[in-house]
Amino acid sequence: MPASAPWLRISADEYLDRMKAGWIGQMVGVGWGAPTEFRYTGAIIPEAEVPAWRPEMVSQFWQDDLYVEMTFLRTLEQHGLKVNIRQAGIDFANSRYPLWHANRQGRENLRNGIAPPDSGHPQFNPHADDIDYQIEADFSGLIAPGIPQAAVDLGEVFGRLMNYGDGVYGGQFVGGMYATAFFESDPVKIVEAGLRCIPSRSQYAEAIRDVLRWYRQYPNEWQRTWELVERKYNRTPEYRRFSCTKGEFNIDAKLNGAYIVMGLLYGGGDIERTITVAMRCGQDSDCNPSNAGGILFTTIGYARLPERFKLHLDPKATFAFSEYTFDRLVDVCLRLARQAVIRYGGRIQRDGSGKEVWLIPVRPPRPSRLVQSWSPERIAGARFSLAEMARIRELPWAKALAKSFEEWSSGWTLLDCGEDMEPGLRQEWNGRRNVFVTHPLNQQTACRIVRTLNLPAGRKSLLKLTVGHHPQGDWTLVVKANGEQILRQVVGRETARNGWLDVAIDLSRYAGQSVRVELLNEPSGWSWEAGYWAQIAIEER
Length: 541
Hints:
CATH topology of the largest domain: ADP-ribosylglycohydrolase fold
Shape: elongated
Strand content: 15-25%
């Protein structure tokens, strides 16, 4: 149906076919690009280093590019499309998966009581312009066929949990392209439709307009367009005013958004070329082809996908940290899409054969207000209430982890343990049995193991520890007694023989006293910082 028509029409069956393909496109793009992620920053990936596609690569149930979206969909499933941003923030705060950059800082802010939208505000989040919401906004268009306004509105609920300005616009742009891809296959028109979803004076919109212009000038030279994008959006300080890094590594939303668009435009509707161009642009070279692949696959539909891209998809496998199998995901999206059609003025009818048909009014989106991370508006002063914080603190996984540690350690208490590197009991690790793994909460907050000991008078008491490290990292062991530091020791390759370090600390000077002992797993560089505990014991002589 032409864009000038007042209504769009799509059957529920066709919607299902295209929506399923959109999810598979994400999985194909991220699986194909995963081996290259951030291996090339400020450089094009050589063609010889592009991985060959293998059908099993579609099995991407442990990717953060996908499992974060599942949290947002679960919120919508439970609370509907009218869910408020505070509820969305509570649900995101209670997630338990590893996160990075804006997502990680946003969740920490939420857990510390900073409610949205302040959790994504630049005053509290130095990653506010990063790629995070952009890589997880696919859901917002996949449940909104022909309804770009829904992608804009959902960006104001979920994107503001961790992002601001261009960081939010990137997700609204991606969501708007998905919404359009149900009815349009021309990549240029899809990109132009996404542009109408974001403020025209934003740097993000400027980057997309530039790529469109350079594509028209050099329709057969994507490398030339890449060089122009690199020069302006990676090497010009004016366009990196709120980048979380200043070197070649660049996770800014607009630079990576430009790479998504390059994949779509220069791919020209071809699956392999679309994904490989988005990948070869470098930087976040699994997320960008995931977005591009999802949008392209939506235009194609599941039934028309080549078998090599869906052959190994297991519809019963569960996405990590969620309750969703692929089949259940599809069912939830269908129900939410029906809600979106009605909420945005559409109608659900039956055709002559009794099949469900959706009629959707054609309405131009109203973009969010222009804000910029380098000169942001004042914070809202949003804080969670005590009742809301109680709901955030009810983290089932954290409670289970603390209980498991107390059982393992005979009375010690685990506090401030982060989720990275899957903390918990290992039956075996590096030749030792029953090893407990911890991880710092964040770069400023150590994981703590505490216990108050009543030491007998007239006897010698030793605190005996056996601790290990990951082969690719190290961490700092700190021991305190009544707040006084009595040991600080790096646990790493140079200090731990065969990966293990034995420590014995004489506590005799506290004999006859009650002493609070703290064992800290402190970060030392924020790379593979897990602490491995094979023994925590008190020996009395």
